[in-house]
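worker-03 picked up job from queue 'complexes'. Input manifest follows; two sequence lines, order preserved.
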Amino acid sequence: DAGVIQSPRHEVTEMGQEVTLRCKPISGHNSLFWYRQTMMRGLELLIYFNNNVPIDDSGMPEDRFSAKMPNASFSTLKIQPSEPRDSAVYFCASSSERGGYTFGSGTRLTVV
Amino acid sequence: GDSVTQMEGPVTLSEEAFLTINCTYTATGYPSLFWYVQYPGEGLQLLLKATKADDKGSNKGFEATYRKETTSFHLEKGSVQVSDSAVYFCALSDPYSSASKIIFGSGTRLSIRP
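worker-03 finished. Artifact:
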C-alpha cells in the first residue's frame, strides 16, 4: 500500500498564478479530506468528500479555492488566483468507514 | 460543537524524562479519541486511539486512557527519547459524521534534549 500520495511536494509560484494540488487516496477509502497547516492558524479543515461527493466546504477560505473529486482515486485542490497569504502546507487525508485518517506527506506551497 | 483542547507548547524535556501532554474534549455522543504525531517535514501519523470509555490506546511506549468522567485523553510516556521530538495532536471523531470527520486540537510541540 503506497499510502496517500500528494503531488507536487513543493510548489513555488508567483502571485496571481493558478495552482493545482493533487491527491490520490488509499484504495478502498471512501472519504477524503483537504487540510491547510500554517504556524499562525494550525491545522484547518478546508473541505471533505464522502463517496466523491463534497460534504462540507465551509472551511474553504474564499472563492479562489475550489476542490474536485471526479472519481474515487483522485482529487484536486485549486487556487486561482493565488496570493502570498495562501502559502502553507496543504495535506490530503483519506479514511474508511472504520475511521482513522491516513495523511499524505503534504504539498508545501510558497506564493511570492 | 465538538472540540479538543490540548496543552500549549512547546514542551521541552530531557531524555528519559516522564511525559504528559494533557488533552480534554467536548462532544455530544461517544466519540473515538486519537493521538497523532507529526515529525518535521511529514504528514500526521496515527499514534494511538481508543474507541470507548476506559479503553487504553498504546504504541511505541506511549499510552492514553479514554476517561469519560473527566472528558480527557492525556498522552503519557515513561521515558522519552530524542527521536520523540515532534508535534502531537489530540483528536476526536465526530460520531454523527457520515465521513468520520476528525476534529484536531491545536497541537503540542515536544522537544527532547539529549
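worker-03 released lock.
The CA atoms of residues 54 and 95 of chain A lie 15 Å apart.
Chain A has a mean pLDDT of 93.
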